[in-house]
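#onboarding

Welcome to the new folks! Below is a worked example of what a typical request in this channel looks like: someone posts a single protein sequence, and someone else replies with the predicted structure as tokens. Don't worry about understanding the tokens yet, we'll cover that in week two.

Example request:
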Amino acid sequence: MLTREEDIDVHALRKRGWTISAIARHLGRDRKTIRAYLSGREPGVRESAGSDPFERFEAYCAQRLTDDPHLWAATLFDELLELGYERSYPTLTRQLRDRGLRPACEPCRPAKDRAVAVIEHPPGEETQWDWVELPDPPAAWGWGKTAHLLVGALSHSGRWRGVLCESEEAPFLVDGLDRVTRALGGLTRDWRFDRMSTVVSPTSGKVSASFAAVAKHYGVTVKPCPPRRGNRKGVVEKANHIAAQRFWRTLPDDVTVEEAQRRLERWCATRGDIRLRATADGRATVQALAELEPLRPVPAPFPAILTVTRVVSAQALVAYAGNRYSVPPELHGHTVTVSVRLGATHLDIATLPAPGRGAAVPTVIARHRLAPAGAGASIRDEGHVTALTEAALAAFTTAGPHRRKQRRPPSPAARAEADNIRRQLTGDTSSSGEVDVVVDLTRYAAAAAGRNTLTPAPTQDTPKETNHQ
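Example response:
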């Protein structure tokens, strides 16, 4: 088999008038090989010495894979063995690939392999939304193994913003929508989502009843993406990729949630908004295009209730959004819920319902003024401070720790308890605290009579009986 370079040399030397024998000696090849390549043999392809053993199975394999594009090659191999196939499994898979017998399944094809069209996005028409799951958040956040970033992008200009959230539940989604919309500068006519269950039904694509109220409040039209068509919202998908690689990948471990949020906003303003975009008049920055979009003002936040669980610290404080709020000191170490109505100026801290009570309403134990997120403030109630001080003073002691080898015999109270156990074992349950002693004189009389009736021992003067034969 000749390489492509050798094939080129063979044809070039032949055109110069060289004979086949001279070319074969020059390249160190057989004359029949040189003659075959001059006759049109393809370089780099080794011709089979015999007939094609797969040819009689090709039609069957093509039909089976047309009927079922996802049929395993191992299953097809089992069927071919029963039909007399004598080659190996790797040979079968190579033949399937080389002959292109497995057709592409259109519903399962990735988006990058499909033909796509350029979608026009007029200014102010559409905002695209998507969740990004970010692995391994800092342990101090207490969010577990995954953080969630809600990203919103203006389809026309490409401006995007994101909000870090503890969960993807509906209240966190509504809070993120409001915050990102205000960061983008206003509302567009349409909101485009993929088929997330908190917005639309994944199967039918219809808007859920709970999110319909949110859409009416902000005056937008909800448009779901077609199923398995991620490129329909390619603007926000690209923003997701940038957020994961240029923001999350380099985030240090010692930052708080609020600091991470500020870093993201700063990056979007200083890096993301200065990107150049192609326009009909040339090129313009994302910021310049976004400022020309006709966005509507954002109304007051939708009154959703955001609820999270927290553990009370030793100082009877509950952490929320970069601040701490006081509770009664007896709740130290307990789990409580923090509830905030979006747009409100206060938060409520409540205890968890007791298990086994069904849908019991949590008991609100504290209500505080809501401090700005990330301010690091400690909001304390005077009553909580007084109760905490009293509890700390009551538990205060100057006694030193106990020595391990110190002698500590049972106390009088412990001995009294031991006596009580002994009385219970003997069946005496009198309340006098002492065992009653009963004196019976008949026992003494019986003992004296027994001593007086004893048989006397024999004396030496008593004659002994003799036995005479």
